[in-house]
């Protein structure tokens, strides 16, 4: 077998060795191994999770061969869980795999404690009542839970857990941590050793812009009673001050200083998101507090003391025009400050752990270092219980989006995905599953939709006839292309949660927009075009993403897997 670093080289570049180590410790339970479940688990097995347990009580039928790549003709009549587990194991022999031939609904009712042994449960194709039961079980056991479902040309992904802490949120846009308007003593002293009025033109044009800005900021604050530029005119004046320091038009370092001047205008101290986390009641830690909150408590103490109302320094500096000597010296100053901040927080973490009766070394050095480096970007996600989402939605938001031309299709499918479960509970089948009953099923589904909307408090609001007809036309089918799309999103969220990386789909139900989801075929090229509408637990639209995936495939075969990245 290839060495882990070579085997997982590409993903290690995204989440690092500590992220991969966390993934390899993950124990995943999959409920139902149809196309959606198989595609979700396939991505996780290839990624190198620690172990998987596949739970499904059904047998492989001929129809499964057309939408599930994890079964073949030899599997017909055999346990679906066993066959899927076998094929998944072949993808990565480093992953431990086992199966249980039992229907998930029965297991949820008969043995709820079973799920406490896993770190994450991925539940696919579950009906509403089973979702509510499983959510209660996993919340009580503090097990992360992800629901995924594909239904015709629509589907959803829903994360459910009491709380999820994100250390490496990796925001798209975030200011470099340079402390240009609040330098620490060592940076100040370094800047003081450099003369901006030096007569040597080579030295003048190779002074790092960080030094230029630190010195000009000091000059500005002395003339303005310690205040930073705040108004438009003041910011313009500050830039003119920088321009006045240029002695030649080709001085890139001064151009960089002018372009980076907006970093000076940012307010000093910690941002509002971090302030909310620090003031959270969970920051008052006890013996059963999570490692994250212990580190937050240490951070809170640090900011109030050694930090001087600032978070620990990240320690990196961007590329800039500079002499090698000055750049290396500047880099060492930033790295030394970051290391000193880390050591201070590490000591406070150990002190807090000892105070609450835990092993002072129970939180690793690597974890604390990562926490310090990302302290300004911490995020906390708290998710509504499924029962709360289903029974106590925001009526105003539901009505708004059901009648909004742009979002009514996505919200309509959200309502219909719940209505078909009511339909199935009443008639023991999903609408459109049997030939010759389409007209009757359409009428029954309309009744189910009206009843659901009435129960949700949306009297007088309805879903369009076209969507109801389309939902019946789906016939509860689980198309491989859609299942791969939904499975890609679900597996991506599992990895983000496991690694404490990126910001997850916070409290969202993600609906593949059936109205805009279509397949374009040209010769051997298949493009899957889809719009993903993201709603929070109240029914409020929070994000809309349109994207596409391409894959070469023989059109006589099933469509290829699609990775949502």
UniProtKB/TrEMBL annotation:
Residues 8-498 form the THIF-type NAD/FAD binding fold domain. GO terms for biological process: protein neddylation. Gene3D superfamilies: NAD(P)-binding Rossmann-like Domain (3.40.50.720). GO terms for cellular component: cytoplasm; nucleus. One of its GO terms (molecular function) is NEDD8 activating enzyme activity. It is found in: Nucleus. Pathway: Protein modification; protein neddylation. The keyword rRNA-binding does not apply. Keywords: Nucleotide-binding, Nucleus, Ubl conjugation pathway. Pfam families: ThiF. Regulatory subunit of the dimeric E1 enzyme. E1 activates RUB1/NEDD8 by first adenylating its C-terminal glycine residue with ATP, thereafter linking this residue to the side chain of the catalytic cysteine, yielding a RUB1-ECR1 thioester and free AMP. E1 finally transfers RUB1 to the catalytic cysteine of RCE1. PANTHER family: NEDD8-ACTIVATING ENZYME E1 REGULATORY SUBUNIT, UBIQUITIN-ACTIVATING ENZYME E1. Belongs to the ubiquitin-activating E1 family. ULA1 subfamily. This is NEDD8-activating enzyme E1 regulatory subunit. It comes from Salix brachista.
């Amino acid at each position: 077998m290839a060495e882990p670093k070579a085997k997982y080289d590409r993903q290690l570049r995204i989440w690092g060795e500590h992220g991969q180590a966390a993934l390899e410790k993950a124990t995943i339970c999959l409920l139902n191994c149809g196309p959606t479940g198989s595609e979700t688990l396939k991505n996780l097995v290839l990624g190198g999770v620690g172990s998987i347990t596949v739970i499904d009580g059904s047998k492989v039928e001929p129809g499964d061969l057309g939408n599930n790549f994890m079964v073949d003709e030899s599997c017909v009549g055999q346990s679906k869980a066993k066959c899927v587990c076998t094929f998944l194991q072949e993808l990565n022999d480093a992953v431990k795999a086992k199966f249980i031939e039992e229907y998930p609904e029965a297991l949820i009712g008969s043995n709820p404690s079973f799920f406490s042994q896993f770190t994450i449960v991925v539940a696919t194709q579950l009906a509403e009542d089973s979702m509510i039961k499983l959510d209660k079980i996993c919340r009580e056991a503090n097990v992360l839970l992800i629901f995924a479902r594909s239904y015709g040309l629509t589907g959803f992904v829903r994360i459910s857990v009491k709380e999820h802490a994100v250390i490496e949120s990796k925001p798209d846009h975030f200011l470099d941590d340079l402390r240009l308007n609040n330098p620490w003593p060592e940076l100040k002293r370094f800047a003081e050793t450099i003369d901006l009025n030096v007569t040597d033109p080579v030295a003048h044009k190779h002074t790092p812009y960080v030094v230029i800005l630190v010195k000009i900021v000091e000059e500005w604050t002395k003339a303005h009673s310690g205040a930073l530029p705040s108004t438009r005119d003041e910011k313009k004046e500050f830039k003119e001050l920088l321009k006045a320091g240029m002695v030649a038009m080709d001085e890139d370092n001064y151009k960089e200083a002018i372009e980076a001047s907006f970093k000076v205008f940012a307010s000093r101290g910690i941002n509002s998101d971090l302030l909310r986390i620090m003031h959270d009641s969970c920051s008052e830690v006890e013996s059963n507090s999570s490692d994250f909150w212990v580190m937050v408590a240490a951070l809170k103490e640090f900011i109030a003391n050694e930090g001087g109302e600032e978070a620990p320094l990240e320690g990196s500096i961007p590329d800039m025009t500079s002499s090698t000597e000055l750049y290396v010296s500047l880099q060492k100053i930033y790295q030394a400050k970051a290391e000193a901040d880390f050591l201070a927080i590490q000591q406070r973490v150990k002190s807090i752990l000892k105070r609450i009766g835990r092993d002072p070394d129970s939180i690793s050095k690597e974890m604390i270092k990562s926490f310090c480096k990302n302290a300004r970007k911490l995020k906390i996600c708290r998710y509504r219980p499924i029962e709360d989402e289903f029974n106590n939605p925001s009526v105003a938001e539901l009505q708004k989006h059901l009648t909004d031309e742009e979002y009514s299709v996505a919200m309509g499918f959200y309502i219909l995905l719940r209505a078909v479960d009511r339909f199935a509970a009443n008639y023991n089948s999903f609408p459109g599953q049997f030939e010759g009953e389409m007209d009757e099923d359409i009428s029954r589904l309309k009744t189910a939709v009206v009843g659901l909307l009435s129960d949700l408090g949306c009297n007088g609001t309805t879903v369009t006839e076209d969507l109801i007809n389309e939902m019946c036309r789906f016939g509860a089918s689980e198309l491989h292309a859609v299942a791969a799309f939904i499975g890609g999103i679900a597996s991506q969220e599992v990895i983000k949660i496991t690694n404490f990386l990126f910001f997850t789909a916070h409290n969202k139900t993600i609906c593949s927009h059936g109205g805009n989801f279509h397949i374009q075929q040209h010769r051997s090229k298949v493009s899957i075009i889809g719009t993903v509408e993201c709603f929070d637990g109240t029914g409020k639209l929070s994000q809309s993403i349109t994207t596409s995936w391409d894959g070469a495939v023989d059109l006589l075969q099933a469509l290829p897997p699609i990775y949502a990245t």
